[in-house]
Design goal:
Number of helices: 23
Oligomer: single chain
Order of helices and strands: HHHHHHHHHHHHHHHHHHHHHHH
């Protein structure tokens, strides 16, 4: 592993940040809270500056918590006596958290769909009704991308859709702004579409995992009811923004909708398992089987039949699961040691109105996610927000689910920079547009998203949650 000077400095800053709380006596913060603060600081610095991969930081977080904060901890026994979870498995167990299993099921389904061209055929069938008008082609591409992103990785969806749009872009004039609009429509739709389901994007998993630790379970369908309408509104607005900023100069693009489904036994089994799993997920409120349990069905069946082979298992995005697990684990220690509550109670929240706090949390999540991973942003903010509500500091009108939704959804609305999300990075790598095009349009979409999150948090979500 090559380490440059910037990485070495970042590591040094993180280590110093980790050590400092051990030599402080912060009033109102327990000894265990001081240790949790040390772990939080080094995690935040490593996640933000990335001297090591972000999933490696998550693994480090779990190790530090096992050593410093578990009953079997080998360091600072007086601290572990004060903060005594049942065992170190409270931290290590996050790797088998139901949310991790839910995402694993989603990854396995996505891998099988790609292997048997289900995603490409799905795109071909859904895009055909939109005809050859450029405006509606963009709309069709965005709708399909959003739908795929709701059940697949945003990154995998964008990579696949790029292979779909490049031939379309090749049929347009080099000077036509339509080229930029088509290229931008994919990452924007992938980011927005991921909000729609629990498995759509890692920030959703962070939200559901944090709520689960509070004894609040959100069904697959309930999440879709909460987030789906927002996705539709923001997606439609984004389409209008793209058309306004990158107005097509042509009235028609010839399209090729040739293709066919694979009909071998393995492909048919994948179609059946994919359809059955999604159906069970969206009807969870009817049969009562948890979405994480359902997620084990495709993992088991596809493994038993050999469709998910050892190479397929190795190629799954395990780094995402490690990242989410580390985030859940960090949230557990921040809450249990009183660190999150201490941070919250040192701010005079009573002077702020609920509307102001919703806007602030949403704005901070969007701004952070434009420069950091949206998962990292959600991971750092949600424990603080949850403590704000559980301590009563937020006042009436706030709920655990509400504040978590505000942060989780907002974190996925960051689209201004190529570094904001992997879909953005993939899209700009095509060379079809420049960063300034993404920044201008992404800024407008982000501001509108902020407004919509505030409106939904104030008027729609409370109705559904009550």
């Amino acid at each position: 592993m090559k380490t440059n000077l910037k990485d070495l400095v970042s590591i040094l800053i993180g280590v110093i940040g980790f050590i400092i709380p051990f030599f402080l006596n912060i009033p109102g913060l327990s000894e265990a809270g001081h240790v949790a603060l040390s772990i939080f600081i080094i995690a935040a610095i490593f996640w933000m500056l990335e001297p090591v991969p972000i999933y490696a930081t998550s693994i480090m977080v779990i190790l530090l918590q096992v050593f410093f904060l578990s009953k079997q901890g080998v360091l600072f026994p007086e601290v572990t006596a004060e903060y005594s979870p049942d065992s170190y498995t409270e931290f290590m167990g996050t790797l088998a958290n139901p949310i991790i299993i839910l995402f694993l099921g989603g990854f396995v389904l996505a891998d099988a769909a790609v292997k048997y061209d289900l995603d490409k055929n799905f795109t071909r069938i859904l895009l055909k009704p939109f005809g050859s008008n450029p405006k509606f082609i963009i709309l069709g591409l965005m709708v399909i991308t959003a739908l795929l992103s709701a059940f697949m990785s945003n990154t995998a969806t964008t990579a696949m859709m790029m292979t779909v749009i490049l031939p379309i872009i090749a049929k347009t004039e080099a000077s036509d702004p339509l080229r930029i609009g088509i290229a931008l429509s994919i990452p924007f739709a992938a980011n927005i579409g991921g909000i729609a389901t629990p498995i759509g994007t890692p920030p959703n998993a962070v939200v559901i995992g944090a709520l689960s630790n509070q004894g609040i379970d959100i069904a697959f369908t309930e999440w879709m009811i909460l987030a789906g309408p927002l996705v539709v509104v923001v997606l439609f607005f984004t389409w209008l923004v793209i058309l306004r900023m990158f107005k097509p100069e042509t009235d028609s693009i010839p399209m090729d909708f040739e293709g066919k489904f694979q009909k071998n036994a393995s492909a048919i089994l994948v179609y059946v398992i994919f359809g059955a799993t999604v159906l069970l997920w969206v009807t969870e409120s009817l049969h009562g089987i948890g979405s994480s349990i359902i997620a084990l069905i495709p993992v088991t069946v596809l493994a038993l039949t050999g469709i998910l082979d050892k190479n397929g298992i190795r190629q799954l995005p395990w780094e995402v699961l490690w990242l989410v697990a580390g985030g859940i684990s960090l949230g557990i220690s921040m809450e249990s040691t009183g660190l999150a509550e201490w941070i919250i109670t040192n701010i005079e929240w009573s002077i702020f109105s609920p509307v102001f706090m919703i806007i602030i949390f949403s704005l901070v999540a969007i701004v952070m996610s434009n420069f950091l991973s949206n998962t990292v942003s959600a991971t750092l903010l949600i424990p603080l927000a949850l403590s704000l509500t559980t301590s009563g500091a937020a006042g009436e009108g706030f709920s655990l689910v509400l504040i978590s939704l505000v942060i989780g959804v907002s974190a996925s609305l960051a689209m201004m920079l190529p570094i904001s999300t992997p879909p953005n990075a993939i899209a700009i790598s095509t060379g079809t547009f420049k960063t300034k095009h993404m920044t201008r349009s992404g800024f407008v979409v982000g501001i509108f998203g902020l407004l919509m999150v505030a409106l939904y948090a104030l008027f729609y979500w409370p109705i559904i949650l009550n």
